[in-house]
Write a structure and sequence with these properties.
By secondary structure, the chain is mainly beta. The chain has 2 helices and 12 strands. A 7-stranded mixed beta sheet has the order 4-3-2-1-10-11-12, with helices on one face. The longest helix has 13 residues.
Amino acid sequence: MIKIAIVSDSHKQTALTSEAIEFLLSQGAQYLVHAGDLEIQENLELLKNSNIPYVSIFGNNDFTLLSHSQKYNIYQEPHYFGIKKMKLKLMHIPNYLTPDSDVVIFGHTHIFHQEYKNGTLFINPGEVCGRDTHQTHCVLLEVTKTSYILKHYYRNIQSTKWEINTYE
């Protein structure tokens, strides 16, 4: 089984981003994906310091991070990459929602979304920052030989208790 932590839309909220990453690591995450709008270098440092393989994408608010692309695993969209034998596509703005990968990850809308269509799993983990929903959201994708198990975690930004919805 592979466990992939997925977050998006940190928007300068380093504490919330750190809490989400640490929670997903405590759930056994082996890989970390950020779907853009990190805005500040401190959020990139959190990804790097997770001590697991990570990848991130530039969001529409990440222009100040362009000069850091050599130091961190942050790319222009869409970015294709692999984990084991899976092909993944990562973007911030959902302009490339074509089923040309096993998993397509995007952000920007701040709204959690999951859909399995034409052999492709589409995921938006929702917002980490809590700006629009006053909740922080993250996803743990568990990949087995026969299925995807998607765990959508969320909590009020004032709370420490994570709620979960599971999709298979």
